[in-house]
Write a structure and sequence with these properties.
three-stranded antiparallel beta sheet; elongated; alpha+beta
Length: 265
């Protein structure tokens, strides 16, 4: 194709990957990673490439409790500093809050304290009824009868949690970006935090349909995420987990073949 023809048309883009698109007319390749996005739009939390609909720049803001209802007039931006990493996107902060925040540490320690207290009371109760029985046998009976759904690690291992964070943040961003793009009426930007929390808890079991993995199962998240009864401390209702899971599963069932290509193994 001559230079004259190449410059006389407006490129018609078709996505090849999450941040890569190609023109179906002239074959030109557009990659956001090159930093040469001409068609962009500034939004409240960053800058979006209009060709691929991905964030090319983002800004992490700390908003007060009334930020969804009241207009801000001070124009002051507060950047959040976290140990070990640089927060590149608001979704990173939400994943961080669930895995590495002081609130999560407090929640895990409180859960371990409850488990220890209940186990001690059960052991004492069984010992008074069976004084001649072996202590190990009694302890096994106590733990079986209490039927704990999980027992978190007694140590809040920051290094392991950080590695988990690095993996989960990329998975979550890919899934949530596609959900918001393909189902904008169901998953809205102003509800981004709830969507991220829902995806994180859904990854405990994963979503597989027709032998295709839509959301991966990450077993160790069962022991790492705060227990659902403590989520009020995160200003997040535990019932929202079920709501988000139902919305995600319902939306995935209604994917067309083209949309399915954005998901999968």
């Amino acid at each position: 194709m001559s230079n004259k023809i190449q410059t006389s048309h407006k490129c018609k883009w078709e996505k090849i990957d999450a941040d890569v698109a190609g023109c179906v007319i002239c074959g030109k390749i557009h990659a956001c990673s090159d930093g040469e996005c001409d068609e962009i739009q500034n939004v409240s939390d960053g800058c979006i490439c209009l060709v691929t609909n991905v964030y090319i720049k983002s800004q992490n803001l700390v908003c007060d409790d009334y930020s969804d209802n009241i207009m801000r007039y001070d124009n002051k931006i507060t950047f959040v500093e976290k140990p070990f990493l640089r927060i590149d996107h608001p979704m990173d902060e939400f994943v961080y809050d669930l895995l590495l925040s002081d609130l999560t540490n407090t929640s895990i320690m409180a859960e371990l304290k409850r488990i220890k207290s209940r186990t001690q009371l059960k052991v004492i109760s069984l010992l008074t009824k069976n004084r001649n029985q072996n202590f190990i046998t009694i302890f096994e009976e106590a733990t079986k009868s209490l039927k704990f759904t999980r027992i978190p690690s007694h140590k809040f291992d920051v290094k392991i949690r950080y590695k988990t964070f690095l993996f989960c943040r990329n998975v979550v961003k890919n899934i949530v970006t596609v959900l918001i793009r393909e189902f904008p009426k169901v998953f809205r930007l102003h509800d981004l935090r709830n969507t991220v929390f829902g995806v994180m808890y859904l990854m405990r079991s994963g979503v597989v349909m027709c032998n295709k993995t839509y959301i991966p199962k990450i077993d160790f998240l069962r022991a790492m995420l705060p227990c659902e009864s403590s989520l009020n401390a995160f200003k997040f209702k535990s019932t929202n987990i079920t709501d988000q899971e139902n919305k995600i599963k319902f939306s995935l069932r209604n994917l067309n073949p083209k949309q399915i290509n954005f998901f999968g193994d």
